[in-house]
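User: Could you check the structure of this?
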Amino acid sequence: MPGHTMRLLDFPGLMDDLEEYIRAGLSGRQRRELGFGQDGDSHTIGCGGELLTMNGGAMTQLVLGIPGGWDASLSASRDDLREIVHGLFPLPSKAPGLNSR
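Assistant: Sure, the predicted structure tokens are below.
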């Protein structure tokens, strides 16, 4: 979001909180194999032994959206993981500062 600073502080915690949304569009095998991790500034999305690893800034841009579109160079190499990442992110959200009531 231009003009705003955003950062994922607890990436696995966020994904746990959004479990129903995350898992709704996945197959049974994908649901079993999908995992999210964080070690310091290294954030990971894993599925079936394949890992997509990014630093916190890049993962924040992937999850919350990059102004002007998602950078295809961040794609994972395995088809299942690429499909999951493209289907889940960016997360739907409202613009900051809007009254949602």
